[in-house]
Every structure is written in C-alpha cells, then in structure tokens.
C-alpha cells in the first residue's frame, strides 16, 4: 500500500509544477439552491438525497448523524467500525452489521450476495452524493426489502490538488489528499485518506487507510467508460457493549472480556468495477458494469477467532428505451444483475488467557466452512405519462438465490456439504403520481420486497449453517404528498406507509456475545414521515436553510412465539418510535459558513418482552467554516466544530436481547461519544 502513496504524491508534485492560472473558486455556494429544491420536489416521495457538503458537516469519522436526518432511516454506531442501518424498521435487529438493504457505488454493488453492506469504511470525501430509496420500491435494483443506498463518486470538471489535515478530541487525526484532472474527454480523481483515533473508551484504537480511483473517458459522442477502484485497510479494536450500570457510571470502559482479550477486527477490502454506457440511438441507452470485490478479515474475539475471506464477481446491465405507448410518452427500463460470492469462514480457539496479556493466541481449529452464494435478478419498469398531471410506473423484479456449502471440518455423519436454494420470488411494484397543480402532487404505491438471511445469521452456535431459515418477504403500501410554497422557498413532504413482513429475521442470544438468527413470524410496520425545508436569502449576503424532519412509527410483532414465550403485540425491538432532526445551514457572504443540527430519538425497546428500554436522547452538532484566497490559484479553508455540544449521555447503539451470564448484567448498550471538538485546515491549488 505504501507504493500507492508514493505514486500519488509524485503525481501531485508534477501537477504543482504546472503553470498557475487565476481560477479562484471562492464563490462556490454549497447550500441548496432553488434548483435543488425543485429537484427534490420532482423526485418520488420515498427518495432522499444528501450532498457532500452535508456529509462533511461532522468530523468525517461517521455518516450516522447526517444519514439520520432522513426520515425513516436510523443508523446506530457503537464505534467507528461497528455500525448498522435500518430503514423503516428493516435491519433493526442486525447485531453488528448492516443488512436488509442494498448498497451501490455508482452502478457497482457494494453489498454481498447475502445482503451484508459495509458503509462505515468508505471515506466521506470520496462521495459527492448519497441517494436513499426507502422500502421495496427500487425495482431497478432488483430485490430488497429495506431499500437502497446509492453513493455517487467524486469527479469534477476541474484541475486541482487538495490537501487537508483534520484533528480532534480523543487523538483524532485525519489526512486527506486529492488530485482531480479534467482534460478533453478524460476525467480522473485520485484520493488518499489516513484516519486514526484513540477513541474515548478503553480498547477502542482505530486506524484506516484508503485509496480511491475514479475515472471517466468519453470514447465517442455516444459512449462512455467509467473505472472505479477502492482499497481499504483497517484495524479497529472493539470495546463492545456495556451493562446499564457501566453505561451510567463508567462509559469509557471496555467490556471486561473484550478488554482482557484485546479484541479487534482487521481487514483489507477492495472494490473494482468498469461501467460502459452507450447511446445506441436517440431513444435507447445501455449501461453495462462488471465488478469484483475482495475482503480478507481477521477478528479475534473472547470466545474464538473468526477468519473470513470473500471474493465476489458480478455483472449488471440495464437498457433504457424512450417510446410511445398508445400515443403516451413512456420510458421502459429492463435489466438484470448477477452476483457470486465465495466465502471461506473458519473459527479458531482463542487462548488469550495463556498469552500474558498480549491478546489473541491461536489454538485448535473449531470449524471450517466454505460457501458459494449467488443470485440472478431480472427487473423491468415501465413509466407512462398519461397527461401533464398523471403518470404511472409499473415494475416487476424476480430473484433466484442459491448457495453451496462445503464442510471441511465435520465428519461425514453430520456434514452439511450440499447445494441449497431459496424459492424464486416475483416482486411487483406500482406507483402512481398525480399533480394537483404545478406546486402540489400526491402519490400512491404498492410494492413487494424480499431479503435472504446473511451468512452470519445462518451460522448456529455450533458453527454450522441453519438451512431452515426463511427469507423475509413483505408488502409495502404508501401514500405521499409534496408541495412547494412561496416561490420555491419552502418544500414540504409527508408520507404514510404500512409494511407487512413475514419471517422477519431476529437474533436469539445463546451465550455472551453470541447469537443465532431465527424467523419471528410476522410483523407490521406502519409509520408517518415528514420533512420541511426552507430556502431563505437576504440581499444576497445571507443565505439560510432551516429544516425539520421527523418520523413516527408503530412497529410491532403481529405473531411471534419463541421458545414457548409469546411476544405478539409487543413493540418491535431495536427501533425508536419517534425520531426528529432539525437544524440550520447558513452562508454569510462568500466566505463564512455555519451548520447546526440536532438529532432527537425516543426510547428504544431492547428486548422482545419490552421490559428494558434505552433512554430517549437528543444531541447537537455544530460547525463553522471560513474560506479565503491565499495566493493566486491557491485557496484555503479553516473549520472548527463540536459534536454533542451539550454533553448528552446516551446509548448510540444497542444489542438486542442481550443475556447476562454468571450473574452479570446483560450488556445492551454502546455509549455515545461525549462532547468532542475537531478542526481542520485545507489547501486547494487549481491549475
């Protein structure tokens, strides 16, 4: 990896030697314009966008507080490397990972074939936009019950080199270096990031290096080739969850066994993809992407050592056709996606107690499994514009998922070696939109989604796969209302939905820090989401954008009996019933920026019996930034900020259904960071 750094800096040095031009870009306005308000108005009601300037309003170590601005989305973060995202309650019962949604970088899937997604290790400086589609309406991305998060890469029509040094509380240090070249028919962006932090808890050191390449070539007037590559290396120690007593009295401590074992995770992950787009005719557009992802992970835990390797390959193709259907303007999108993942999963005895406090020591091999998992998806959407007021979108997706297990460890009598599959599913989607006038519109939709169990959920406490787990399936019913007011100065959105889910996958604790996946019968997910965004300008020198977003939900178990105990009628575990985000983005003149955000969350049930809850909380973040010219084509920016400004004590993530063993309290809670400060200094040279 060090060779990549050397090459990067050599290229940067060559660029610095170029002739300077006075192309200062201080007048760039980061805040949303009326044009972007119009884009949000035209977008479907269950789709939300975040721009890069929003993503960087925190200290660049996490996207959680920014992503939680979106109604219906709740991201929990127990540490820099311990995150999980749920959308409308789907994925809330995951323990230490994000699943039940699909994650894409441009047109390239980042999710594995079983639905596991890693978002926290993608550096925010490499993302120009985040698009979130809530629920199973994203037919063009195949099967997905929770929704889709699509990341758009950074690639600008500018020539510049930029460097940034960021520092903060708890030994936070981050270095960013970026080179962007746009010349003729080619654009290239190279980015290197190095992030380290000591964390505010014991056993929470974290180190990550990432290398990013994004390039685009216009091969002709009608064809384009894009190349994306990213390599990430990280090692993050794991303090794990705490009991309520430790959360309140000693939140900086690590869980005893994790501290004694010096538990951590480390991995190298690479994602590479090529996307070719071609305008075949004036009304036919094609896109084809081929991609691969590689992950080599090692995780010493108090109860064992997990050694995982994964290699994935895939292909995605879409064809978009503009046509006249019965004299109505229409758009047809057809395509498919194939993904194959080869997993190697083994567990090893961890004899850390015999290693004189030095951490992990490998013992005997406990299990050794390989699994090949693949899916094939096909999808088609037809969008018909019946009039200026009414359009209808019809969609249909299908998925066939299969996997093969090879058990290298067990004897022939209990070996699981064999081929398995899930039934093929058909997933319809209907969305209708009616414009009441040019500033108001209503929409209604019905859609079906599907998600398969992950490898981690399928592993039993004996280290074998539970082949009896059923995929989750659900219908979503939704209505929405959008309106612009006062000449694009105010955008209002309200959505009401009901999702009915069968075979929701939940976790049963079987030992300390160990769980198995089980199906929970049926659950209901009704909810209301709203958003108010304003765009206020005063004599061109002051721009302000206040906003308030929120969601109210009433998720519960319809039918769930586990080990003879009924939880039917109880609130769904791991999800707050109320969530609000409000704040202000402001720009004074051309140089000064101010951002303020508050996230508020109601109490969260942390066990299925609804006898234990995480307390409600609200925390606030703020940041100020100043930009100024330094010399000719060199500009600078300085920012300072504070997270959790009022030092709220809260649980930033929870472990559902934790069980205490040996007379100890159950460890449900990850403590949120106390008040912490950060600042950065950046230089941009435009050539």
UniProtKB/TrEMBL annotation:
It is found in: Cell outer membrane. Residues 183-644 form the TonB-dependent receptor-like beta-barrel domain. PROSITE patterns: TONB_DEPENDENT_REC_3. Residues 42-148 form the TonB-dependent receptor plug domain. InterPro entries: Beta-barrel_TonB, Beta-barrel_TonB_sf, Plug_dom, Plug_dom_sf, TonB-dep_rcpt-like. Pfam families: Plug, TonB_dep_Rec_b-barrel. Gene3D superfamilies: TonB-dependent receptor, beta-barrel domain, TonB-dependent receptor, plug domain. It comes from the Bacteria. Keywords: Cell outer membrane, Ion transport, Iron, Iron transport, Membrane, Receptor, Signal, TonB box, Transmembrane, Transmembrane beta strand, Transport. It is a multi-pass membrane protein. Belongs to the TonB-dependent receptor family. This is TonB-dependent receptor. It comes from Psychroflexus longus.
